[in-house]
Design the sequence.
């Protein structure tokens, strides 16, 4: 962490436990209290493991329960161990209701499991099903069609409008609930991968900054808080209505920084975020579906504009698999973490000068009118 913190920035090695925007303070878990002139909230989500009865016990006894999850470093290695031992039976994969860290991520381990079993001549003996509370494969129709096609071609079952509500690790049974009528049923499994329910951190839910769902309530375009103008938020803990991904933050960060600097100079926020996000869905060890879209689930693709067949983002691609495996890690550590990556604009910094000019002219006109009225 110390390697990526800019010079001149003090790293408070503590956890926030309370925010009071009325007096501009952040209370820390250690009891330390910090004051601020301006506040940026980017806490991410918390995993609510305890919301599914039996899940935590099953995860802690994964060797016998065969329950695993990639959403905690303590449990992630168990996924690989359970997968290697899977030779027959039923493999179940789950997705909770929103919010989720990257809406497409829960599917990735399921597709990788399918590919792994095929490469090791075990797929015919294993039944794979994916359970999700949503009604469709993916929120963007263009990409949902691709996933539906993959599902049918590979014999992977999708069970929609269904929630995991209980785990019995000793008996290797999972209990599901139908969203429509609340009825429940139990299935045996040989492997169960769980994406846990997620939410904003508890201390944010009780903060005056929160909206009714517990997220920091900001303007969807400017990232500025709707009630406290000296507070901004981005990322998973914000109320920005887009898929919660790292790619989304690459689009949000330049907007937030520009608007924060203007507010610090006594001006109003002008830069706008269009909801850009991306969920690269790994479909196996050699192909990936590169989804990119903005608000209202409208595709906005970086590469499709280039007229080359292998750059069509509406199709799974080995090229995009290589981009995620090799290019994205380099971009993250060497560009994004140093403030030199701008989402769909890549390395080209957004230009908000025209928006600034219009806002300054408008504010100047209001000032002149106010003086005349006086």
Sequence:
């Amino acid at each position: 962490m110390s390697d990526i913190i800019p010079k001149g920035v003090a790293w408070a090695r503590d956890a926030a436990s309370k925010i009071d925007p009325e007096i501009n303070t952040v209370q820390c878990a250690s009891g330390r209290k910090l004051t601020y002139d301006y506040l940026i909230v980017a806490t991410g989500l918390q995993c609510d493991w305890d919301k599914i009865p039996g899940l935590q016990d099953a995860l802690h006894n994964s060797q016998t329960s065969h329950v695993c999850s990639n959403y905690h470093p303590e449990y992630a290695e168990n996924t690989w161990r359970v997968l290697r031992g899977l030779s027959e039976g039923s493999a179940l994969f789950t997705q909770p209701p929103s919010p989720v860290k990257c809406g497409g991520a829960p599917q990735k381990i399921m597709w990788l499991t399918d590919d792994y079993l095929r490469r090791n001549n075990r797929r015919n003996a294993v039944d794979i099903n994916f359970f999700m509370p949503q009604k469709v494969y993916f929120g963007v129709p263009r990409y949902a069609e691709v996933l539906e096609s993959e599902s049918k071609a590979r014999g992977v079952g999708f069970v929609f409008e269904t929630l995991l509500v209980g785990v019995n690790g000793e008996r290797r049974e999972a209990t599901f609930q139908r969203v429509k009528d609340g009825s429940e049923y139990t299935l045996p499994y040989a492997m169960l991968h769980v994406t846990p329910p997620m939410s904003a951190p508890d201390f944010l839910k009780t903060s005056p900054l929160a909206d009714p769902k517990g997220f920091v309530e900001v303007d969807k375009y400017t990232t500025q808080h709707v009630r406290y103008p000296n507070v901004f938020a981005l990322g998973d803990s914000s109320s920005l209505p887009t898929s919660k991904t790292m790619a989304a933050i690459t689009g949000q960060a330049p907007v937030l920084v520009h608007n924060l600097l203007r507010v610090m100079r006594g001006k109003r926020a002008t830069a706008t975020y269009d909801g850009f996000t991306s969920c690269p869905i790994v479909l196996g060890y050699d192909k990936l579906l590169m989804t990119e879209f903005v608000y209202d689930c409208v595709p906005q693709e970086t590469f499709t504009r280039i007229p080359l067949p292998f750059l069509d983002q509406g199709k799974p691609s080995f090229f995009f698999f290589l981009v995620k495996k090799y290019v994205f890690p380099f971009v993250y550590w060497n560009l994004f973490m140093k403030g030199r990556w701008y989402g769909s604009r890549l390395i080209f910094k957004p230009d908000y000068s025209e928006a600034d000019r219009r806002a300054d002219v408008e504010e100047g006109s209001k000032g002149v009118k106010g003086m005349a009225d006086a």
About this structure: The first helix runs from residue 55 to 60.
